[in-house]
């Protein structure tokens, strides 16, 4: 046999090894080793700023857990202002985030001086 044929036979043998089944106990160990880590939950500083005729709150700066959503923030602010209707929240005075967006994600993208600035009003302000 030539050297080329020997190399081809070795490659074929290597392929046969790949086709063999992995024992169940080994596959369970492999599955457990690929566990996704949960993102670390931290406290995020949020600064509230009213727009238009919306009431102002004191203090304007609060800390909230990074895994909370915008809807939780909206409920908190509505309760703090003793309002009967939900407020319109904006990030960076430009867009209204979806209710299920995580505060931590918005903070990582749009923080200013280590704060997430959230403006709020009673009616649609932008767009």
TrEMBL record:
Function in brief: Ubiquitin-like protein involved in cytoplasm to vacuole transport (Cvt), autophagy vesicles formation, mitophagy, and nucleophagy.
GO cellular component terms given for this protein: Atg12-Atg5-Atg16 complex; autophagosome membrane; phagophore assembly site membrane
Primary subcellular site in the record, as a coarse category: membrane
CDD domains in the record: Ubl_ATG12
Membrane topology of this protein: Peripheral membrane protein
Keywords: Autophagy, Isopeptide bond, Membrane, Protein transport, Transport, Ubl conjugation pathway
Gene Ontology BP annotations: autophagosome assembly; autophagosome maturation; autophagy of mitochondrion; glycophagy; piecemeal microautophagy of the nucleus; protein transport
Protein's name according to its UniProt entry: Ubiquitin-like protein ATG12
InterPro entries per the UniProt record, alphabetical: Atg12, Ubiquitin-like_domsf
Recorded family membership: Belongs to the ATG12 family.
Subcellular location: Preautophagosomal structure membrane
A GO term, aspect molecular function: Atg8-family ligase activity
Pfam families: APG12
Species this protein is from: Candida verbasci
Complex formation: Forms a conjugate with ATG5.
């Amino acid at each position: 046999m030539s050297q080329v044929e020997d190399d081809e036979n070795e490659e074929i043998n290597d392929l046969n090894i790949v086709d063999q089944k992995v024992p169940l106990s080994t596959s369970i160990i492999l599955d457990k080793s690929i566990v996704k880590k949960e993102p670390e939950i931290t406290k995020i500083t949020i600064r509230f700023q009213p727009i238009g005729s919306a009431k102002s709150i004191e203090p304007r700066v609060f800390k909230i857990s990074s895994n909370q959503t915008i809807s939780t923030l909206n409920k908190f602010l509505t309760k703090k202002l003793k309002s009967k209707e939900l407020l319109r929240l904006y990030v960076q005075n430009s867009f209204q985030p979806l209710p299920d967006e995580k505060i931590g994600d918005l903070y990582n993208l749009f923080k200013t001086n280590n704060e997430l600035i959230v403006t709020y009003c009673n009616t649609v302000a932008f767009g």
